[in-house]
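Q: I'm building a small set of examples for a reading group on sequence design. Run inverse folding on the following structure and report the sequence directly after it, with nothing in between.
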């Protein structure tokens, strides 16, 4: 288990933005009910014992996974918890029976995505003590889908559903089946000291292995994450508001993402009041990027869509250290469309604005600091600001100071 312990070198944080309430880490206290989950230890399904413990101790309970390996061969739906502490000392291994999971994963109600575990409730506190681990047996999935995006019924590892005034700390996630986790319909949640490693061991890419996605959630703090994966490190999607992401390291994948969003025709969605700070990106494609669907619907979600409405605004991305970023530091694009289709980048009515990128240092492979393709139908992007940028080109060590722009209105601190 020591391999997955959090690195003590992560910097501690001092300040929060005023719009986000800081949930503090929680120490277990005396509970009316305590449930210690026994592991079979022989590879047979431990999910029935897990479900029984969560049912018995769902109110004012203390649920304990011992320092053992638990085999999870069937879905878990443990929501509607109240005032529950969950101690995860052990190792949860999902079966590699992909045929079973394709038939039995549970839909989450967005993008036709599904999950193997719904977990949520009020005043819920999950502690992995730096050793508790979720292993999705993801290589079996990477080998089946062979890079196909949003393979039907391929499940994510965990869906935090309806968590309120809750915390998740000291947890490790390895070889996630698809997205590592989604935080949905949740409010005032701390996710701290989280380790994610979903990387392929052969030529089949670990695509769609986002470290975390948020949607329909408010007041979420994500602190001291270390993510090494094949896609977005953290992605904020529909109706994500008052989010802080800080003091983290993102490796290999796409970097930090706002979106994709605007996929559902006529639906109004937002991403608002976001602070991202003190992040190190190592070998990611971008440091940060924005992606919206075009204004023309082509096919249907999860792989198709478009025509959504709404806005992204009041975002601050600051104090980033870039190491070997594979493309530009910042990309804004409104061109996402059905796989294989060429989207009209000027058709989206979804507005992107009020985003500040400040204090970026390091090296990138691209020749631009930022590449921005904004939609003219939405009036272009507005309030885009860059400041204190000190980047060099990886191959030549020459200064990078150019920007590529389309429909950026009133750029602040830079010239297109």
């Amino acid at each position: 288990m020591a391999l997955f312990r959090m690195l003590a070198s992560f910097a501690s944080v001092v300040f929060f933005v005023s719009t986000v309430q800081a949930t503090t880490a929680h120490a277990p206290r005396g509970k009316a009910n305590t449930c210690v989950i026994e592991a079979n230890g022989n590879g047979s399904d431990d999910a029935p014992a897990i479900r029984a413990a969560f049912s018995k101790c769902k109110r004012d309970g203390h649920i304990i996974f011992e320092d053992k390996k638990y085999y999870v061969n069937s879905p878990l739906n443990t929501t509607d918890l109240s005032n529950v502490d969950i101690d995860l000392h052990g190792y949860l291994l999902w079966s590699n029976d992909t045929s079973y999971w394709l038939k039995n994963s549970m839909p989450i109600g967005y993008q036709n995505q599904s999950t193997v575990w719904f977990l949520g409730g009020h005043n819920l506190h999950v502690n992995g003590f730096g050793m508790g681990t979720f292993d999705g047996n993801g290589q079996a999935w990477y080998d089946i889908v062979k890079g196909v995006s949003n393979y039907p019924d391929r499940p994510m590892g965990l869906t935090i559903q309806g968590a309120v005034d809750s915390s998740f700390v000291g947890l490790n996630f390895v070889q996630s089946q698809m997205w590592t986790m989604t935080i949905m319909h949740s409010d005032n949640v701390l996710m701290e000291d989280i380790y994610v490693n979903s990387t392929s061991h052969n030529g089949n890419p670990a695509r769609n292995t986002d470290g975390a996605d948020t949607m329909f959630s408010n007041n979420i703090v994500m602190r001291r994450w270390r993510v090494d994966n094949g896609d977005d490190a953290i992605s904020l999607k529909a109706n994500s508001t008052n989010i802080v992401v800080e003091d983290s390291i993102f490796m290999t994948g796409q970097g930090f993402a706002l979106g994709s969003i605007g996929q559902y025709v006529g639906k109004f969605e937002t991403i608002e009041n976001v602070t991202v700070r003190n992040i190190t990106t190592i070998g990611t494609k971008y440091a940060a990027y924005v992606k919206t669907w075009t204004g023309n619907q082509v096919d249907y979600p999860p792989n198709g869509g478009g025509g959504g409405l709404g806005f992204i605004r009041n975002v601050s991305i600051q104090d980033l250290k870039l190491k070997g970023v594979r493309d530009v530091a910042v990309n804004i694009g409104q061109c996402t469309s059905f796989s294989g289709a060429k989207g009209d980048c000027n058709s989206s009515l979804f507005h992107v604005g009020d985003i500040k990128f400040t204090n970026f240092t390091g090296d990138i492979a691209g020749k631009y600091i930022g590449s921005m393709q904004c939609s003219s139908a939405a009036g272009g992007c507005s309030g885009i600001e860059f400041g204190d940028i000190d980047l060099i080109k990886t191959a030549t060590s020459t200064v990078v100071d150019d920007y590529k722009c389309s429909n950026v209105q009133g750029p602040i601190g830079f010239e297109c």
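The longest helix spans residues 47-56.
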